[in-house]
Amino acid sequence: MKTWLSARPLPNFDTIYALLRIVTGLFMAFHGWEVFNATQMADNAKWLTDLHFPAPALMSYLGKGAEFASGILLTIGLFTRFATIPMILTMLGVAFGMGHGKVWYEDQHPFMFVLLGVLFLSGGAGKWSADAGVEK
Question: Taking every pair of C-alpha atoms in the chain, what is the biggest distance, in angstroms?
């Protein structure tokens, strides 16, 4: 009981943190996978045109590319702090630019990814990551 009331992390924190990072990375990569679908990207660019985004086709590819690349890097835990920056910026764009400030946007939760990005930006990749192997 003393462990549960302590401010210290639980003994299995490294594993839980790694699972959270990996799952977040897989979700981001899944959302970014659309970058390989020309029809979907054209639809995204049209949507951004309707929302009056500048350079909608470019912004569509940048956003989906950032989601995909950040997701892959987060999943393996490589360059984690750098990978979270485009993820955070993209998800802020989705939440506040496309979603007009709705942090729970339709069936997606872009602001949750912003918060997770801040967690991984401040906490790094953790013990079970490629970044941890580079540090040795």
Answer: 56
